[in-house]
Target: Tyrosinase copper-binding domain-containing protein
Amino acid sequence: MHFHTRFALASTALLSVSAAVVSSPVCQQDIVKDLQEQAIAVLKEKAANTEKGSSSCNVFNAHVRKDWAAMPAAERKAYTKAVNCLMNKPSKYDPDVVPGAKSRYDDFVAQHINQTMSIHGTGNFLSWHRYFVWSYETALKEECHYDGYQPYWNWFSYQDNPNESPVFDGSDTSMSGDGAFAAHNGSVSGAGNIFLPSGKGGGCITSGPFKNMTVNLGPVSPAMDGEAAVPSAFAWNPRCLKRDLSAYAAGKWLTSSNLLNITTGPAASTIETFQDELQGRFADEFLGMHAAGHYTLGGDAGDLYASPVDPAFWLHHAMLDRVWWMWQALHFPQAFTVAGTITILNRPPSRNTTLEDPIYMGQSNAPERPISQLLNTLGGEPLCYIYL
Ligand SMILES: *[C@@H]1O[C@H](CO)[C@@H](O)[C@H](O)[C@H]1NC(C)=O
Ligand SMILES: *[C@@H]1O[C@H](CO)[C@@H](O)[C@H](O)[C@H]1NC(C)=O
Ligand SMILES: *[C@@H]1O[C@H](CO)[C@@H](O)[C@H](O)[C@H]1NC(C)=O
Ligand SMILES: *[C@@H]1O[C@H](CO)[C@@H](O)[C@H](O)[C@H]1NC(C)=O
Ligand SMILES: *[C@@H]1O[C@H](CO)[C@@H](O)[C@H](O)[C@H]1NC(C)=O
Ligand SMILES: [Cu+2]
Model:
């Protein structure tokens, strides 16, 4: 793997982090590689010190989720083919209950819409989205014969020009490119506190594997200027997928200094500070890496409820899960704790989240599980994966 060859360089960079180092895109890559390497080293050490049967899940036999940029063309195409397959299979929802769910893909969108207010800014934010991505990956495999694993979008490259990224360059080995240019006045994010200037898109995506896709659900809470909400959350609203790739959001918040803060810096000290910093401090006009990824995509992906309509959602959330996974590896035994409440930003005030709280996926065919079963990606049942 390419990160092995650059590890020595990365270690040096990490020891001498300075403003100059952090602002260099090359070193941004090195820092995430170094954290990755540290996480794997810890997991190897744990595997070596644990007496377990050879069949139990560990870092050596776990499934591997890869960086999109490091995947060969054939693997990328197999992935987008499976996603298109899911978009062409029928929904399992009763059309009277969710009229906008026309495809199997839409079932996942509906799931997210339905639970939005109890899975963001809550104690289950990380575990809910981990299980959501896992259930989607499982559907791609079981229902669409995909034989790989969920790829991730590495936030720490191409921040200055996401349009050139292998994820968004619009080629047939990308996740489709930017939207067509459509004049608009940017997007409003961060619970109304943070304005994002418009990029070069704003209209329908015009290239790549999802060029012809039909979005059926949302927008429920559109962020981009000019977009109107549907009258009810599950209404059918067929239209194209819109994007407005934002170098502004990526360059400002998908940074090594923010990554270091939550993985090894002051915000890394507890699960509470980690997850809060990751999700932003909107009153401080700090978007955080979770929302920054959504607004780097822009367009439909900026809708808190219906953001999974953009198939890049899953690569973004895999990266988010990877950052949590790295934090977890570097913070045993705190790795398996939760903090936060069961309502969005504790509005209205609610009880604390517990490890026994159920995470359910409804129509996505993943059985309800307590949070405690979703904290360890090497837990074996159901999760057994690592990131490389
Ligand atoms: C939405 O969630 C509730 C539980 O909060 C559940 O009873 C209902 O079936 C869900 N609806 C859909 C469409 O998934
Ligand atoms: C953007 O805002 C300006 C000033 O408020 C307005 O004149 C213009 O029509 C807006 N453009 C669009 C595309 O909404
Ligand atoms: C999109 O639709 C057009 C017209 O129906 C068709 O010619 C084209 O092959 C489709 N492209 C993809 C990527 O499915
Ligand atoms: C790191 O995170 C802490 C906790 O949220 C925050 O107060 C601080 O401003 C962050 N530091 C940087 C450099 O972003
Ligand atoms: C909820 O969590 C907070 C912060 O972790 C803690 O201070 C508080 O005591 C907890 N509340 C209850 C009822 O356990
Ligand atoms: Cu979400």
